[in-house]
Amino acid sequence: MGETTLRVSKIKDGTVIDHITAGHALDVLKILGVTGCVHGVVTVGINVPSKMLGFKDMVKIEGRELKSEEVDKIALLAPHASINIIRNYKVVDKQLVQLPNVIREAIKCANPACISNSKEPVKSTFYVESKEPLRLRCHYCGYIMENQDIPKQF
Ligand code: CTP
Ligand code: ZN
């Protein structure tokens, strides 16, 4: 990439979440709890041109490496995202997110009457019926959540 096209600068230490489905950077920030006052520099790119996806979003978080539960939640929003761990300016680990077959506790069921939304101590559980477009089935009530419903359930 030439100097004239550099949009966001490289980071020294932290995590770059790259190839996020365009339009979902803010959902990723919500999952990571980056909503208001945070420490460290966070850089967000929205609708950045991408060879692979046409357009993509990206999030760069300095001084933080993500937990595996956080990576699994990102997979629900951005099935092609890559998680790059940066140490001293170098990419030391690059991982593609992977959607598990069963999703536990990451999101709430969209059916308000579902037992997993009551005060009962049951953990939300969904089965992946389809990966693209993403479709999830609730273990408790059978409700099907479609792709567009999922970001609201975090
Ligand atoms: N990156 C960064 N700071 C660094 C190193 C890398 O912000 N010190 C970013 C790059 O801008 C890129 C991502 O981390 O968005 C992955 O870096 P790299 O593997 O070098 O880029 P690509 O080869 O383009 O990655 P891919 O093949 O995954 O598209
Ligand atoms: Zn349910």
Mean pLDDT: 92
Q: Under CATH, the topology of the largest domain is which?
A: Alpha-Beta Plaits
Strand content: 35-45%
The largest sheet is: 5 strands, antiparallel
- The structural domain count equals 2
Looking at the overall shape, the CATH architecture of the largest domain is 2-Layer Sandwich
User: What ligands are attached or bound here?
Assistant: cytidine-5'-triphosphate, zinc ion
Number of strands: 9
Q: Would you tell me the structural class of the helices and strands? A: mainly beta
Model regions low in confidence, pLDDT < 50 over at least 5 residues: none
* Helicity, as a percent range: 10-25%
Q: What's the total helix number?
A: 2
Task: Walk me through the topology.
Elements: E1 14-21, H1 25-31, E2 42-50, E3 54-62, H2 68-77, E4 82-87, E5 90-96, E6 102-104, E7 125-130, E8 135-138, E9 144-146
Antiparallel strand pairs: 1-3, 1-4, 2-3, 4-5, 6-7, 7-8, 8-9
Bound molecules: cytidine-5'-triphosphate (CTP) and zinc ion.
Residues 109, 111, 114, 116, 138, 140-141, 143 line the site of zinc ion.
Give a description of the structure.
By secondary structure, the chain is mainly β. The protein folds into two domains: 14-96, Aspartate carbamoyltransferase regulatory subunit, N-terminal domain (Alpha-Beta Plaits), CATH 3.30.70.140; 102-153, Aspartate carbamoyltransferase regulatory subunit, C-terminal domain (SH3 type barrels), CATH 2.30.30. The chain is built from two helices and nine strands, in the order E-H-E-E-H-E-E-E-E-E-E. It has helices at 25-31, 68-77, and strands at residues 14-21, 42-50, 54-62, 82-87, 90-96, 102-104, 125-130, 135-138, 144-146. The strands form two sheets. The protein has a five-stranded antiparallel β-sheet, covered by helices on one side. The chain has a four-stranded antiparallel β-sheet with strand order 6-7-8-9, with no helix packed on it. The protein is elongated. The model has no long low-confidence stretch (mean pLDDT 92). It binds cytidine-5'-triphosphate and zinc ion.
